[in-house]
Amino acid sequence: MASKGTLVSALQTRRKEILGNWLQQLEHASAAAKGRLSAKDVAKQADEFLNVLAATAQAHGTDDIGAAGWQPVRAFLEDLSRQRVLAGFSSDETATFIFSLKRPIFDALRQECAKDADKLANETWAASELVDKLGLHTIKTFQISREEVIGRQQTELLELSTPVVKLWDGILALPMIGTLDSARTQVVMESLLRKIVETESQIAIIDITGVPTVDTLVAQHLLKTVTAIRLMGADCIISGVRPQIAQTIVHLGVDLQGVTTKANLADALALALKRNGVSFTKQ
Amino acid sequence: MQTLSSGEMSVVNEHDIVLSRQAVRRMSQQQGFSLVDQTKMVTAASELARNTVIYGGGGIVKWAMLSDGIKRGLRLTFEDKGPGIANLELAMTDGWSSGKGLGLGLTGTRRLVNEFEIESIVGVGTRVVITRWK
Amino acid sequence: MDRIPILRMGEFLLVTIQVDMQDQLALRLQDDLTNAIEKKGAKGVLVDISALEMIDSFMGRMISDMSGMAKILDAKTVLVGMQPAVAITLVELGLSLPGVATALNVERGMQLLRHAMSESSDDANTIKR
């Protein structure tokens, strides 16, 4: 069982040495890869990390990095991962930042343990385990961060692919293109309802010309959207209903609950204008 | 999965329903939920709190704010020592009502959250656990 | 004792619900409202919920009930200003408040009520003839 003392004291008393060594290792591994991070930034991060690592090891020992006391270190690594994800680093480039800390620590331990080979072996093993755990935590949070970023991008894509258009005063149109699943429906509902409030629109036309199939689920999602619009006090017209879709709806026994449907957007707009009391005269 | 903080509140009368709604709103905001997700969680809590008070004869709600480093969540456990629900399957289908309900049973609430667990033993009590992730 | 105020807005009544309502308050409101409709001979009621951040099944039933009671007293109810987050949640919950008219805001709500009233007075005129 390695004494907490040696690693902790090595981190404290030989910190400058370890830092210098580490930065050298990092340069070797070109962690500032392709100019995405300046050498100065890397140095600053390394310095900060060593500080929080040394302080935490001193206060809470090095056995369990999952303990509450190790939260500052974990948080540091999480921030680091997140930054690296956003800067376009790969997971192993990011993990290298931590793993290259091993050599400098081993060197420092060798100094501390002087001639005691047994002690050195134990301490080296303990230090190796510690760095491994920290490295793994970094990789894990890197993955999670990356998934988060992808998730966010997907949501943005969803929003972009369902733009809400103002056709006239009080009339909005939402051309739906592609399948309508529950994730999309949520996004659609939120942006459409928000726009209705913002523009104080009376009528929302949902055009489903671009929706390939309408099965029970899609119909349910559509109805949810229609219901939400009505609850807020606006009305809804569904346009782009092809003959096949009309057949499917009847066969499935879907109750459209009095929602007006039109074959195309033009007809829907004409109806909406009429409902709003707008008429055109030819000059 | 870490529990950032946890606690419990009694859910015994009408006023407690309001208090637990307010607490859930605060915690959802703290966990960074979107406005819609906050509203869903608060509404689910309101439904379950009401069930606890009216059908369960009063009970408690245990809350826990969770985090796995990146993802954050909120877990609520409503417990009572009431009469329990005899036919859980029936209760979980839309359109069930045991009197004062709107015929929605618990399925509506389940749709508002990401994870939903229910345990109920007649004569012993009921426990419902709901979790919402950011 | 807390009471939700009922104001007069022209020929209609306006109820603004702002607080987290408990059962007692809700029942009292139903009582006050039905009395007010009768006393003022109101033909329309506007229920402003733009400040409500949540509606659960209890609230939903209370609103439906109020609308039903008003109808029996020959007054039409319009629910105005529901927040998007609330609408989305209600739909997910499975509540659609059938039989309750809705409008984006108080102004639109009044237009709706006036329109409904003129239609019914048209009917009355037709019958007279």
What is the CATH C level class of chain B, in words?
Alpha Beta
The low-confidence parts of chain B are 96-104
For the largest beta-sheet of chain A, the strand count, sense and barrel status come to: 5 strands, mixed
Largest interface: B-C, 26 and 21 residues
Average pLDDT level of chain B: 87
Instruction: Say what the CATH topology of the largest domain in chain A is.
Output: Globin-like
CATH class placement of the largest domain in chain A = Mainly Alpha
Terminal CA distance of chain B: 14 Å
Strand content of chain A: 5-15%
Task: Kindly name the structural category of chain B.
Answer: alpha+beta
- Helix share, percent of chain A: 55-70%
Tertiary shape of chain A:
rod-shaped
Number of strands of chain A: 5
Biggest sheet strand line-up of chain A: 1-2-3-4-5
**In percent, how helical is the residue content of chain B?**
25-40%
Whole-number total of structural domains of chain A: 2
Summary keywords:
heterotrimer, A: 283 residues, alpha/beta, Globin-like, Transcription Regulator spoIIAA, 2 domains, five-stranded mixed beta sheet, 11 helices, 5 strands, B: 134 residues, alpha+beta, Heat Shock Protein 90, five-stranded antiparallel beta sheet, 4 helices, 35% helix
